[in-house]
Amino acid sequence: LSPGAKMGCFTFIKVMMILFNLAIFLSGGTLLGVGIWVKVDGESFLNIFGALSSSILQVVNVAYLLIVIGAILLVIGFLGCYGAQKESKCLLMMFFSVVLIIFIAEVAAAVVALVFTGLAETLLTGLVTPLLKEKYGVDKTFTEIWNVTMTEVHCCGLNNYTDFNNSYFYETHGSYPRQCCGMQEPCNSTLAAETAVKGCFEQILEEIRTNARVAGSVAAGIAALEIAAMAVSMYLYCRLDEK
């Protein structure tokens, strides 16, 4: 290519890099703002998004999650946008490094998820099942979380209805949660065995497998964007030596 064509290509890629990372920066700012809002004024958030959001907030601390993700996106967007605008090799390299670290972490997480699914089930069984026996029907928040989860996912316990054997709930009510019998009451051992409602862990895994193509496509798209972002930042970094 002629010097003019090369310069035009460099300018185009620089502008696209700025716009792309500006969008990331604004998205990060939005998530950060929402996270702070949920943390400071969670009651308004619950009023707007309904009762289900209460259980979601209790399962995962959404405020901190949004703040962390928003802060990461802000840093990435700033480094990419400002680095391209100022043609700073230092900022471009920092952008490349941060995206590379995130990419490696995502790949590692995917490998761990594939390899250690069985181990995760064993660990969860050892940790969660005792809690179900002790807290379900005793702790209002804990009970509500599991009721929403079992109703929405159409599951029972972590593994199946036997997780509630010798539990406080069974000893008190003489039955299993109605979700273990397809919402039929009273839910005794015979009906629960006949209904054979799957455990929540297995049901969630099945949902993931069912939607694996969509999840895989989304993951592949994110990975492609990250690789493209790294390639563009490295291209700009190398071209700066020629200017």
TrEMBL record:
It comes from the Eukaryota. The chain crosses the membrane at residues 12-38, 58-79, 91-116, 214-238. The keyword Transit peptide does not apply. Pfam families: Tetraspanin. Its main location: membrane. One of its GO terms (cellular component) is lysosomal membrane. PROSITE patterns: TM4_1. InterPro entries: Tetraspanin/Peripherin (IPR018499), Tetraspanin_animals (IPR000301), Tetraspanin_CS (IPR018503), Tetraspanin_EC2_sf (IPR008952). Belongs to the tetraspanin (TM4SF) family. This is Tetraspanin. It comes from Thryothorus ludovicianus (Carolina wren). The lineage of its organism: Eukaryota, Metazoa, Chordata, Craniata, Vertebrata. The gene is Tspan1.
